[in-house]
């Protein structure tokens, strides 16, 4: 198994930009709206004082918890949802109670990679997207011609994905939107003998399934990776694994994935995912990643 260090930089956006960052905050443009959100990774000084930033909304985090809080609407005319687009994929951005915007924009680097690999394959491909959130990766794969199984424990997130499928003119593409627990679903797919050409995993640090099943990253990931490896065809195309807010390095993540992929050969790219800051050379790290591909 070959291992390569890389930086996964999401620099392929027109509708998104990181405008400034620092002092634990970030100013971003999502389509027609600018928002201010906390980010503990922004450990440096901002280009302009945070209080001088111009935005449509500001997320006030609760003390000691960057994920929970409430939005302050600075522009009373700013709608709650608004259109965005990436490479012909259309969807709606929205301010959620957990400071998220309905899209993890740093994953665009993987959307482009998946499309490239699927188009190069020259064969029909079936893709499994686990912990798929609002489904932009699923749409990217479907746009590239793949048959997709999208799984997320949240029916609401799946509903947003279905809406985006229609907005993107992809209703004729095959995407199964499934609300289920990832571990249980993978176990059932093993029993059924179903296999996939490519699998994407974006598991949270902690989560709950549709029937209140608990997911803990460090405890449950090894078993899930075992199951995922058993679902791959003899000559798979790629596997993408990302992780947020865990006490692991990308090296640990890559070697855990490499253990399961040894029989397939290929190589693993590993490193940090990041967003480029507009008009500067700074980058905002967001997560870690290990990405296997066939030679």
UniProtKB/TrEMBL annotation:
This is Class I SAM-dependent rRNA methyltransferase. One of its GO terms (molecular function) is methyltransferase activity. SUPFAM superfamilies: S-adenosyl-L-methionine-dependent methyltransferases. CDD domains: AdoMet_MTases (cd02440). It comes from the Bacteria. Residues 67-214 form the S-adenosylmethionine-dependent methyltransferase domain. PANTHER family: SAM-DEPENDENT METHYLTRANSFERASE (PTHR43042:SF2). Keywords: Methyltransferase, S-adenosyl-L-methionine, Transferase. The lineage of its organism: Bacteria, Pseudomonadati, Pseudomonadota, Alphaproteobacteria, Hyphomonadales. The keyword S-adenosyl-L-methionine applies.
